[in-house]
């Protein structure tokens, strides 16, 4: 079959379902979240093998993103995977943008494409800082767009994380994150806030940003406390995300850090098509 015909048939399949001409949704989906501790729970460093219980009913090829947040700490201070749960993770050992150290938080991000089976609950180590600092883990899981041509959807990093530090915000204690424009279709952007107190967060603003399925925040009351909050945006086509902001609703104002990173979903058949065309993804 000629490459042009193959591309045409692929495009038509993406837009229709058989002869019924039913449009297919190819936007990735948010699937679930896991956290340790629970909101307002208490966990402090040091920790050896602090575990997360992944959301139930996950499926092969789900995207798994884990945020390891510590009050205090430094780069290469021992924050690391203890048990990989049978997955192959990407960490800041492979891309420096996956780690942040500022005042007062340090954060490390890990992600993987779920292979369909957890050998064990994945776990992480937190090094000793003072023995009293808050230590938290959050896992966000996303489902890829329905594959039009194969049963093997994949994930890639569209844009690495962009970190920023903020000082105590002025009333009404709004903390903003600058949006971005993904370069690939079928993408998800994750916005992340952390603060050095057990703040609640609210008044999410920013077109198409949402927190459906998430708690407004995940507070850790251990030690000197901290709070973590997320929002996400799901896109079919690549377009500017717009800026996103939240207010520290209680216990503020407090300093902290923000981040934003973007992944994209694609079908393994794309690799064949682009290989035939002699171009990169």
Concise synopsis of the structure shown:
This protein is mainly beta. 8% of the residues lie in helices and 41% in strands. A hairpin with a 5-residue loop joins β13 (218-220) and β14 (226-235).
What does this 3D model show about the protein?
The chain has helices at residues 3-15, 268-277, and strands at residues 29-36, 47-51, 63-71, 80-83, 99-101, 105-113, 123-126, 135-143, 153-166, 174-177, 187-195, 200-205, 218-220, 226-235, 244-250, 256-267. The chain is mainly β. The protein has one domain. A five-stranded antiparallel beta sheet has the order 1-8-3-6-5, with no helix packed on it. A five-stranded antiparallel beta sheet has the order 9-16-11-14-13. Strand 13 and strand 14 (226-235) form a beta hairpin. The protein is globular.
Topology overview:
Elements: H1 3-15, E1 29-36, E2 47-51, E3 63-71, E4 80-83, E5 99-101, E6 105-113, E7 123-126, E8 135-143, E9 153-166, E10 174-177, E11 187-195, E12 200-205, E13 218-220, E14 226-235, E15 244-250, E16 256-267, H2 268-277
Antiparallel strand pairs: 1-8, 2-7, 3-6, 3-8, 4-7, 5-6, 9-16, 10-15, 11-14, 11-16, 12-15, 13-14
Question: Which features would summarize this protein structure in a list?
Answer:
2 helices; 8% helix; 41% strand; disordered N terminus; globular; 281 residues; mainly beta
């Amino acid at each position: 079959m000629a490459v042009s015909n193959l591309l045409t048939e692929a495009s038509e399949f993406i837009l229709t379902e058989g002869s019924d001409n039913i449009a297919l949704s190819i936007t990735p989906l948010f699937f679930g979240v896991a956290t340790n501790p629970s909101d307002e729970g208490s966990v402090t460093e040091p920790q050896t093998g602090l575990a997360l219980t992944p959301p139930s009913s996950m499926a092969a090829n789900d995207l798994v993103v884990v945020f390891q947040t510590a009050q205090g700490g430094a780069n290469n201070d021992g924050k690391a995977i203890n048990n990989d749960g049978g997955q192959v993770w990407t960490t800041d050992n492979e891309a420096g943008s996956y780690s942040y150290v500022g005042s007062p938080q340090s954060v490390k991000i890990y992600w993987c494409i779920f292979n369909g089976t957890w050998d064990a609950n994945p776990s992480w180590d937190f090094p000793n800082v003072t023995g009293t600092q808050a230590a938290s883990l959050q896992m966000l899981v996303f489902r890829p767009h329905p594959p039009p041509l194969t049963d093997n959807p994949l994930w890639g990093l569209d844009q690495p994380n962009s970190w920023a530090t903020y000082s105590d915000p002025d009333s009404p204690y709004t903390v903003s994150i600058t949006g971005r424009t993904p370069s690939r279709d079928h993408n998800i952007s994750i916005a992340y806030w952390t603060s050095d107190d057990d703040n609640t967060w609210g008044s999410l603003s920013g077109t198409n940003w949402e927190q459906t399925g998430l708690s407004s925040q995940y507070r850790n009351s251990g030690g000197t406390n901290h709070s973590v909050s997320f929002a996400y945006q799901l896109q079919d086509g690549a377009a500017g995300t717009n800026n996103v902001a939240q207010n520290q609703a209680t216990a503020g104002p407090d300093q902290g850090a923000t981040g934003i990173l973007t992944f994209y979903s694609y079908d393994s058949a794309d690799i064949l098509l682009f290989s035939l065309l002699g171009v990169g993804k």
